[in-house]
Amino acid sequence: MMKSIIIKTICIVTLCACMSACSDFEEMNVDPVKAVEAQVSVEGLLNNSIADAQLTYWERDILFIRTWSWGARYIFRPISGPQVLQDYNDYMSDYWQSLATWIFNASEAIRIGEQRIADGTAGESVGNYVQMARIWRAHLFSEAADMFGPYPAIKGFKGTAENPPFSSVEEIYEYVDGELKLAVSKLDESKEIKGDIYDAFYAGDIKKWKKYGNSIRLRCAMRFQRVGDTGKQRFEQAVKDAGGLEGFIVNKEDNASVAQASISTEDDAGSVFDCDYIGMQITSTVTNIAFGLGGIRLEDMAKNAPSTSVYNLPQEVLDNETQSPNEYLGMYLPNDLPNKTNVQSVGYFFDALPREIDPRILAVYHIPGYNDGRMNFYSGDAVEMEYPNGTGKIWNMKHTFFSATCGDYTGKTAFIANVRANNALMPSIGAKYRRGDYRRMFFPNWETYFLLAEAALYGWDTGGKTAKEWYELGVKASFEYHELSRFADDYLKSEDYNRLGTSVNFNHTTEVQTVTLKRKLYETGATEQIIYQYPKSIAGTNNDPLTKIMTQKYIAQCPWLPLEATNDYRRTGRPLFENPCLEGLLPFMTFYNEWDKADIKNVYRRVRYPVSLATKDPQGYAQALELLGGPDKPETPFIWHMK
User: Fold this and answer.
1) CA-based Rg of the chain, rounded to a whole angstrom?
2) Which of 271, 526, 536, 604 could form a disulfide with 436, with the two C-beta atoms 3.0–4.6 Å apart?
3) Residues 283 and 240 reside in one and the same domain
4) Residue at 4 is within a domain
5) What confidence score (pLDDT) does residue 624 get?
6) Residues 6+ apart with CB under 8 A from 542
7) How far apart, in whole angstroms, are the C-alpha atoms of residue 401 and residue 407?
């Protein structure tokens, strides 16, 4: 299928080129800065900002994969990485600089566009481009505040050499809300340009830009759900200003997304998942959430769901190589896998395919050893490994579903290291995402519905529907995106629990403490029964309505919006992220020693400022820390975080 690719424009002419073009005295007396600025395209500045934010090959590695996706537990990383609060100055220094460039280009689009409107030299579409840039910049400001905390947002990016003052997280979000409201009010649908190649999001459809701006207001307002009435007031005002549900992104055609190129790996326009040297394997966080959830059978997906990685799986496999997660815990490997974490399933190898699993997981991750023709990124790789090392014993990982958690594995064998040595041995992000077959999602319709569901649960005014109704619309929107709508109604009725004690049916809120499951003993191959203890969440409940909403939102956001998934966990503690295993020590988490208790601090709360900031702008750095209210460490929370 043909798709449009971002066109990155060369919108700034160098000073040297401008000066060399001057042929007489009169031309040389023209202010060169103004001469350059006169040749700048407002739409080109915005397009460049959006195009650059699609991430270079290096940035998608250090930011989208190693920071956001690891942090959200969508992709596995055993010890190092933000999953366990270890960040890297080189990574964040590069991101700091790139983010500033994206924001600067958007800010220049606003400044130059407004100047041209004021002096009467603006083209007809410039006014809309100014507001589109304002919406995009608001998105970037919120990202900066979510990552670093205090940031020089409000008074920065004015094109001057002075170091601007930092703004607090609260100030940034108040400013963002005002900017979004202003932008939407000034967008003029009568002046849209259909098919506009400079608009990477909506090709000139101004009505959709309005929906994008309104929807971001909901997201940003919900950040402050815990901060007095701030979140409620902003959320309800955004609902009122939008003029009804149709003022938000509620249809898939309105999703805020940008095309990615199906081209060579190292091209900057490639997919954010196009890093072929990173395995992108599934995590135990995902399998704990997805196993058994919704009651949809693997056999039904194999026969009726072409969008999944099990489509056309042979009947022989379905009959002989599947196990129900509601009955079977897995093969017990106490010497090989960690046990010191707060979810009991972590010490087990699921040596089969799950007979019941949330179907969207199989629309995102491929399974080892089965080449379905669309999903398996490692279809040509062997799915065997020698273990224990030097024994000649071969493990066949075909049609298995192993996942692991992050943390310290001191005292354990090389099992996990051997599995990770071959990227084909675990379920991992499918080829259709890594090739760039899909547009990168920035704000999808299901997020609107889940935000409205959460707000309705708190008793906020959302326009008339109940939390349950919004919740079910969110689930259905997510299923539709993955071409799984045929399963949605049955899924929403399910009262089956996942590994965390959460079910799908919104009205089914019975808490469960234990269940009897089978397990296989590795040494003898014998099967025995054990009592599986469901973990205790931070909130103390696992099947309440808020946990259901956040569980479904977490699954729906996978794999496109890992930062939002992490933000939701930072804010609500839901769904449960198991603790990093603590077989030895985690030197960068010295405060963490109760591995068996759910802990909101088991993810990074923020990333540190670049080390160079303290020397290049000591006054600004000191101000940032004062506004942060704590040390420049990944575990320092923001005002809207669950403490």
Assistant:
1) 25
2) 271
3) no
4) no
5) 98
6) 500, 501, 502, 511, 512, 534, 535, 536, 576
7) 20
The answer on 284 and 161 residing in a single domain is no
Which residues is 256 bridged to in the sheet?
443
Closest by Cα among 198, 202, 402, 394 to 291: 402
Q: Which residues contact 238 (CB under 8 A, 6 or more apart)?
A: 177, 181, 214, 217, 218, 221
What residues have CB less than 8 Å from 271, skipping those under 6 apart? 60, 260, 261, 262, 433, 434, 435, 436, 440
**Is there a single domain that holds both residue 240 and residue 338?**
no
For residue 493, what is the DSSP state? Answer: H
DSSP H/E element including 453: helix 445-457
Q: Are residues 116 and 158 in the same domain?
A: yes
* Domain encompassing residue 75: 15-251
Structure tokens at 582: 């603590």
Q: Are residues 174 and 302 both part of a single domain?
A: no
Distance from C-alpha of 578 to C-alpha of 346, rounded to nearest angstrom = 9
Alpha helices per DSSP H over 498-559: 545-557
- pLDDT at position 278: 86
Whether 284 and 233 map to the same domain: the answer is: no
Is residue 296 within 8 A of residue 290, CB to CB? The reply is no
The DSSP output letter for 486 is: G
Tokens read off for 168: 């607090």
How far is residue 453's CA from residue 477's CA, in Å, rounded to a whole number?
A: 13
User: Does one domain contain both 553 and 505?
Assistant: yes
Q: Which two tokens stand for residue 494?
A: 């399910």
Q: Are 94 and 302 in contact (CB under 8 A)?
A: no
Asked if pLDDT for residue 160 goes beyond 70, the answer is no
Domain final residue, candidates 548, 568, 589 = 589
Q: Tell me the pLDDT tens digit for each residue of 118-154.
A: 999 999 999 999 999 999 999 999 999 999 999 999 9
In a domain? residue 558: yes
